[in-house]
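[Automated response] Your request has been received and processed.

Submitted sequence:
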Amino acid sequence: MKTVLKATLLALTLAFGSAYAADAKPTTSDAGTPGMIAGDVVKAEAEVVGIDKKTRTLTLKGEEPIAFDHDCREGICGTCSLVIDGKPHGPRRGVATCQTYVRSFRDGDEVCIEPFRARAFPIVKDLVVIRKAFDRIIEAGGFISVRTGGAPDANSLPVAKDVAEMAMDAAQCIGCGACVAACKNASAMLFVAAKVSHLNLLPQGQPERERRVMAMVRQMDAEGFGNCTVTGSCEAVCPKNIGLEFIARMNREYAAALLKGKT
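Generated structure:
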């Protein structure tokens, strides 16, 4: 028996130009979702991929605005996550959705904006998805469970410079989910590898390193994320340029924990 899953999806099309088109009218998508915009023309200002302006326009008209996630607008929090022209976060590398402005496109371009789509990221409405699966992975082991007190003096706990820099590179992960959206298997390996590595590399994370990697990988599998086949698509769209070397590092950590019989 074949099970068909139905969800309300929004594919938003924005056409960028220098003035409003006289015939720009909201239409309805094939899925019956109000708010499918065809032919809308937006001034090339520093707006987040034109959605801000469209949302304000719909609100002033008394119509239902487009639902999308955003918060810091600085590429820090990972809240804003959209697929822009088929690429998570858009065409520019090393930036989040909130740093992809209208000026990133040429006059006359038509840009398709979609939500992240993955089994573990159910769609709530329009461009909003739930990413609580990431939170549950962190709860499984992404922490140090001892009281570490206040900030220690800079040199009281020596950490090699290359190790400190690698841990900081991993800690840059903002948990946006672009790696999952880009992966053909919807794998969360890059996210989990970054969260495991930034703790396991530092002295404070050493006592729980084996339990941590086992617990977080187990929770990742339980959430329904796919397997990693090392295509590199996650690395290509990561707004913090986190590399595949962290996946390799986590695989070694996981294998070592298995050999030691850790669960």
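Summary generated for your ticket: The longest helix spans residues 245-259. Strands lie at 12-16, 25-28, 34-38, 41-42, 82-84, 87-88, 110-115, 123-125, 128-129.
If you did not submit this request, please reply to this message.
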